Amino acid sequence: MTANRPEGVDPRERLIVALDVSSAAAAQKIVAAVGESASIYKVGMQLYTAEGPQIVRDLVGSNRKVFLDLKFHDIPNTVASAVREASGLGVYMLTVHGSGGGKMLQAAAEAAKGAAGKAPFVLAVTVLTSMDQNDLNSVGVTGSVADQVVKLARTAIQSGCGGVVASVQEAALLRREVGGGFAIVTPGIRPAGTAVGDQARVATPAEAIAAGATHIVVGRPITGAEYPGKAAREVVADMK
Known about the structure:
Blueprint: E1 15-18, H1 24-34, E2 40-44, H2 45-51, H3 54-61, E3 65-72, H4 76-88, E4 93-97, H5 102-113, E5 121-125, H6 133-138, H7 145-158, E6 163-165, H8 168-177, E7 183-186, H9 205-211, E8 215-218, H10 220-223, H11 228-239
Parallel strand pairs: 1-2, 1-8, 2-3, 3-4, 4-5, 5-6, 6-7, 7-8
Helix pairs in contact: 4-5, 7-8, 8-9, 9-11
């Protein structure tokens, strides 16, 4: 793993399992079922709101890596303070909104680097994978989805962030336009034959890695499966 771009040789290190559930008990049941097939787990707004920071402490304490996906978006000082608190929990990755601007992104990156212990990767969310061109236009962005993703990614990397969150459709473009040396985490991953759900821009695990993603986020296809461990192993196999 380099300073700015996590590159797990083992595909299991590239899989982030989304714990989009409402209790610590449900989350821990998924973690136990997945077993050694993944080591990174996403704690998002749903689980964090229900259980608070203790679920993060518990996961970190059991040698799991935590991707804290709370998408901080506020004035620079407030975001920096939140990042410091998250860093103190021992998270591996955390998200901020790229649209917060350069000052906010820089404050977040500097707060992470100044944290005690190993600094987490600060990832800037570009355009949500649930949004399409019409959605983007409706909030006042007149450029294309691709242009907006590249614009926000450039600002994030220049501000010191370790990577971005973007859809697979933009991953290859980011590698061409922005370069390497940073993480690209791609949500909206759906193994072949599974339901798309509420995502507008999706791809398979293999397509994501081929496009230049360093990590993929998979939720319902694993957590909603009858055998989550088996489902996770199939995702890992597809990445290979």
